[in-house]
Amino acid sequence: MNALARIFATPQGIVFFVAVLFALVLGLINPAFFTPATLIDLARNGLVTGIFALGVMMVLASGGIDVSHTAIGAFAMYATMKIVLGIDLDLPIIAYFVIAAIIGAGLGLINGVLIGGLGLNTLIVTLGTLSFFRGALLTFLGTTYITSVPREVINFSRTILIRIENAVGQMVSLPASFLVLVAVTIVLAIIMNFTVFGRKVYAIGGSEEAAQRIGIRIRRVKVLIYVIAGAIAGLAGMTHVTLSRMANPFDLVGMELNVIAAVVLGGARITGGHGTVLGTLLGVFVITMINTTLLMAGVPSYWQKFVIGCLIIVGTGLPIVIDRLARHRQRMKRPLEAG
Amino acid sequence: MNDEASGSTPILQMRNISKAYGPVRVLEDVNLELSTGEVRCLAGENGSGKSTLIKILSGVVSADAGQVSLNGRQLGDDPMGAITAGLSVIYQDFSLFPNLSVWENIGFLTSVTSGDVVHRRSVRRKLAIETLKRMQVEIDPDAPVELLPVASKQLVAIARALANKARIIVMDEPTTALTRSEVAHLLDIVGTLKKEGVSFLFVSHKIEEVFAVCDTVTVLRDGAVVVEGPIGEFDAGRLVEAMTGRSVDSQRLPREESSVQRPFLAASGLGRRGNFVDVDLELRPGEIVSVVGLLGSGRTELAQTLFGYMQPDAGRIELDGEAVTFKSQHDAIERGIAYVPEDRLTEGLFLNQPIRDNITVSSLEKSTKLGIVSATSLLQRARNAVKNLRIKTPDVTPAVATLSGGNQQRVVLARWMERDPRLLILNGPTVGVDVGSKREIHELLVSLSRSGTAVMVVTDDIPEALALSDRILVMVRGRITAGFDAATVDEDTLYNEVIREDRA
Q: A265, A272, B217, B310: which sits with the fewest CB atoms below 10 Å from its CB?
């Protein structure tokens, strides 16, 4: 296989190639695209998707799927605001994130018990809990926007890591919330690659029966997977508040397919056993770039769905086609001889 | 290492094990002992209780009565208990993680048993490399397991057990998927490890391997031990008799001579890049032809090409004297060719579907009038097939998964016979089938061929080819190197021909 064919032989390769192509075209149309300001803009826009995606990646690696993560995020974010406003205490910003993560972990535990404990199908369970968590949020916690968020949240959202001027003279800034993504990335990379638990996640995704036979306690591992994924979703929800400076209970739910698309484009397989932290971030980056830049270019928003849909089909289908062609060509190159 | 056990004291004792599933008694009062460095064969037909005994031993299933003790310590019904006590079971499917590397697979069991929290990459990788070296096996430790050939997967599974300091290794039909030379290598490794004091419980159908590797034998039949003792007290005949409860003669099946007829299928100069070349062969009604070759000799590809599943690059195929090209297997099926694949479980059967549906699925049109399928006709045909092929089942509605291996194989045969094929191609027709059923399947094939069907069998089982065929073709590295009349050739000649270039 030549170099170009090799790029197209993996989903990440195609995704990366499309990203580069996309950037080049945009750069030609609008030279201002190739500025650090664009990068910062993308980092900011992909922040919440990125945090969600990391949790979903772990679930996919174990051979499951989680569509309830956005509902967990929305529930955790709104509940955290309600709690903090209710007790009326001055808490440091870190406490907000801790509360949101604990609430998320609690909801994740429900997924974990249903999936790991009762052995139910992950898609069915999380489709159910997606609706259940969202319904519970709107029924019992409220449907009103919380616009007067605590001072700590406002302060945190005003904390800026980098601020630069873009081509048209506007200020673009990278908020401190970006550090949440950095922290989740580092922690998850350590869990997946340097703990036996993380390797068990991949093992279960590779073969559940084999895992059971060598004495891995599958139920326990699964429960923990969904608890961690829930905690990550809770952090994503809280991060969303710090970006929007209000808590809207109707936010977040609806973006779950976008998140799963990013994870799959990043190389995780829906059949389990595969998926990396870096690949996932790449997938998020590409999806965010397409969404953001099409929007900036004034393309109607339904085009974004169309483009991402194409990318998923091509990204997962083309490697298979190329692999088949390469095998055929390799065989035809051989002389008419056996062995 | 805990080498304090001398050769005479048993490292493993199973005493008075009984187990019943509902009203069905699977095991009754079974005793089994294993000493340090002993290789014991657990022999028995499918359904004799071997698998249940292994499951009890490994702690996956709990016994109704009796005890299992390892090194004098009693084991509970917990898989971890058995593993930490030094017992490893190597299952037929190896139970490896296809997505992980060789070294990680080998080290995983150790990580689990030692309760590690941190993934110790370099330590585990080193352990894996050392273990492979100790077994004198060359496998790339960084390759993902899914890319390995079957024989290497088997070795990785053994390495995993050894890396965890296993003192007892239970191997469940370890040679089913291996060719003769791979089996020989495996038996060598078993011999080496035995000298290091590792004990083996070897579950096998294959009589020749039992004699090649085992010190002692325990024969199970209908859930009870019928006979046990040192291998020296047995010969092949006595062992088979103990397993089946009747004497089975391993000689050639009796048959009527058939008159030579015009070939149904004739191939000339058939070749496919990388697989086989210059193949000439004729398949006639009323005749069984075996193509015998090692794994990778091109035998499977040849069979699949004749069935239209692969396309040849050179040569021609004639049916009834008329040249044909098969674009796909549908064309071949249309012309009356049937193919029973090598791996009936993954390629042939719908395991969770009823026996009836499995038998009739590829011949629905026979029961169809005006586009509507008649359920009564399907049921009738399925019942007839079950009767004709002596499939052991109370009815045609249970799922195929509930049948034993030999009976599953018969369901596949039944399906193709419902299409009244003119040529039946079988790839490894009795892989994983016990001795008694094997004989019955062979008898079925002979009577099928005598009723006018052309039969081609692809196999690496030489006794099978001898028992079954009229003519035997030997395939070595993609070429047909020799042809024999099965009635006159002897096993040694055939064996030497098959492995001729394998030695180079």
A: B310
